Automatic annotation (TrEMBL):
It is a multi-pass membrane protein. This is ABC-type glycerol-3-phosphate transport system permease component. Its main location: membrane. Keywords: Cell membrane, Membrane, Transmembrane, Transmembrane helix, Transport. InterPro entries: MetI-like_sf. GO terms for cellular component: plasma membrane. It is found in: Cell membrane. The chain crosses the membrane at residues 6-25, 60-79.
Amino acid sequence: MSLPVLPLSLPALATVGILAFLRYWNDFSFALVFISDPYLKTVPLSLSIFATGYSTDSKLTMAAMALAVIPTIIAYLAFQEQVMKGMTAGAVKG
């Protein structure tokens, strides 16, 4: 008799998927080095155009950051239960 591995590992896989999404969504250094086309820039790389070496438009930067964080909040709220299950699955002694 085989154990149903996939249903048991679903919370852990969902947690890894969500954390990987957030890592690549917030990637700055890889995109800075390899992406030169302005249409392919990631969100943090696009936000960096608001700050120069001499000045920063704080109001515009904060407004853009508020809009940029919306997809990550939606992703977390949609998968909140899976994240909590995945985080606590390995913490139970027994």
